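Quick log. Single chain, no ligands specified.
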Amino acid sequence: MSSNDGIVVLTTREKDWWLSLQEIIPAIERVWDRIGRSERKTVSTLCVPLPPEIEQRLHAGASRLERIVLTTVTPGTVKAALLLRSQMEEAAPMTLYLHGDGTDGFEAFGAFADVLTERDTFVVTCEEEAATVRSCFPNAQVELIPFPLVDHFKVNSGKRRTKVEITRLAYVGRVSEQKNLHTLLFALWIMRTSFAWASAVTLDVYGGEDDLGSPNMGLKHSNFGTYLRELAESLGLEDVVTWHGAKPRDWVFYDVHQEPHVLVSPTLHSDENFGSSVLASLVNGHQVVTTAWGGHNGFQEWFPQLLTLVPVHQSTMGPVVDPGSLARAILAAVERSSTVVVEEAAIDRGRAAFSEGSVTARTMEMLRRSDHAPVPLKKSPILQHIDEHRVLFGSARKIYADYEDPVAQVFFKAYGMEKPLPFDERSCYVLAPWVSYSDNVVRIVDPHRGHRSFNVDEKISTLRDVMMSPTMKTCRLPESLVKKLVAQGYAFSLPSEG
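-> predicted structure:
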């Protein structure tokens, strides 16, 4: 620290267990290093926890700071930032990089949320994340700046692209209930059931089980990885799905994303604010099928010929992906892999948007914007409600009663949950594999959204035939119950090949 310090960047390796942050945090650091080397700003990057002598010098020079940057909010960066702010007569503005913090009510911020001002800036990577921030802090300054990851990706640039039919699907990411892999398996079963030519399609899954469940709801499905393997077997997909487990990140990015494939991501994860695996496949010129959820939507602007977005529907139990729509989208992407050649110049345009040079320029623009008054940043009634529920539930993570919680719906809609699934009397409906019917009871054992059951009165006159998966047997249920199962995302219209 010197007498002319302008900007201090507080960074950390406290979240290295989060694999994508192993790339993202250093990328943010490099942006601020470039700003420092531009000679327009003096930038010091400090990795917490700080040695005692550095911490003392930092606090002594607090009054000279022009800006404080947090690459991520962790106990270590919060501690350092709180101490700095407490020693300033006039609080220097802070730039805070978010990684889905809005969707859990800024849980990691703790008391830090009470000292934020309208001078502080939240940096997000997508419009959906910006909406969650404003739901919590209506007067917040929010800047949309993507993560600059492309410079350190190994890409197929310069190679001639040919039309090749690719039937290999790849999923790269955590094996987690919110990642919605069970719905992907259901979609593969629908592909085999409804589209004869889909039998050649295979799926490689790269990633380890995270054992997190849905912490915001206090829900967890034990042994989710085992559940998925048993589900694949029950659906007759043993010859379709290969489980590779966790692989070294360099191996995945350099050996999976460069090889021919169609990447699939059916995620409904609460803080899916970016998607580095999606970006890695797109910049390598591969077709990608993903949910229209969170940060994935933003890639459409830069890779329109490579990205297919599957709608996320509103249900009375939170967001739902129609497995039939997912199946059709995958098959369309497989077909495009052999019929569509994307020019290298178009891919280069997308790569440039996620480069360090482009992101540095956008960050410099942010620094040039007019300053705001250092008035306290007020919490919204929604965030106050979440804070109260955190105390009520006695947990730092659980903030919603369940997936039906009305406050949770606010964040689902911000992230991309749209119109409900319609009920069509002409359609043939199929129950999800986690729905069963016996002894006049419909039982739902949903690994993502929890368990429930419905008693069936067979005396009801209006009954409807519904297929069960994977047996293809028909059961007769009251039409009113079928409509409810559609509304909750447990019964789906079975597509036809025609």
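Residues 429 and 493 are 5 Å apart (CA to CA).
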